[in-house]
Amino acid sequence: MSEGNHGLAGARRNIEAWYRAALEAVEPSAAVRRHLERDGNAAVVGGRRVPVPGRLVTVGVGKAAVGMALGVETVLGDLVSGGLVITKDGHAEGERPRRVRVAEAAHPILDARGVRATQDVLELVAGLGDGDVVLALISGGGSALLEAPRPPVTVADLAMVTDLLLRAGAPIDDLNAVRTPLSLVKGGGLRRAADQATVVTLVLSDVLGNDPRVIASGPTISDKQRPEVALGILAKYGLVDRVPPAVLDVLRTARDQEGEPAPNPGADMLVVVGDNNAALAAAAETAAAAGHRVRVEWRERQGEASDLGQAWVETADRAGPDVDVLLGGGEATVTVRGGGIGGRNTEFALAAAIALDERGDDQWVVASLATDGQDGPTGVAGAIADGGTVGRARAKGVDPAVALRDNDSRAVFEAAGGLVIPGPTGTNVNDLYLAVRMEPTG
Question: Looking at the structure, do residues 107 and 68 belong to the same domain, yes or no?
């Protein structure tokens, strides 16, 4: 292990430094610039030349939409005719694009501002034709921000469905499978609105495995609408009798519908400009460059946060002496049973802290951190836990076991220390898991 990093303070500094390195690797503007060039009146996307004989309109959605739009403007300049991107409240601070308008809306629960902005996007692309290009910028959070409810479903109906699924611990794949047949814009709806224009999609992926049909519910990807799958998911979580009647009406009366093909599918293209693996690789490279012995242990890991936190400690305990840093990527879920304040990353870290305490483990410092800097309703990215976290919390009058049962993980780290609070990072590529072995002190 490198010098100056033996103790708890050093381990925490390292974790936060590697987290920052991961974020820099998937910073939206830089990620776009790495995959985009200009060649006269053409854009070069992922090495492929896309002529722009007409207009080039930039539309986007997600937590990284503003940064991605800035990257586009930096490269393409006056080739951009205009556009509109929709992002989450608080994610449009700082510099904004000059040629592309920015709208803010609520996330993860849809609101009326998102619906109004979606209508503006649809009207913008509907005015385009053959020879025009839509540059669609898609990033995490897009499913809640870009929405046009399928009548008679309302904004309130969709918000209620989303809230019920989130509280039941549904992963993003299940959320989107339910929301897609209830929407006029998901599953290729944006692509259909663009009609004869060429659509080029740049994706900063928040979906493990990078399935473009799942990322922001695939607004530019023609796909089947599967209402029977949505009904099955609602039944799996015991929500059939709890969702609004209009939702069931649409799902029960709709048939499987093949998404309409793009008018000129050979001209369309999609490029993933950043994902969880890119962030994970940057963290690993930075740690290794500092002299640490690093192993990437998990990729695309999913599951209940409390289970994964315990499993992460078990994984660290099994690590041989030739490794002092473990890294992983994925995204957990939380089944909400209590009334506390917590998110998937702080709950992961709390479960890990309890596991460390039960083992009497003072070797490992572990962390679970959201790359968007926003771990659910907590206002933090996540937390760093060690073998003393439980004891410090109890000394402040907070019982970690009770907090875990009440989904009140933030309270533990407020008492014991360890919260990581970067604010909104402007990017979103799932979560990072870290473990650092401390050298014995005595």
Answer: yes
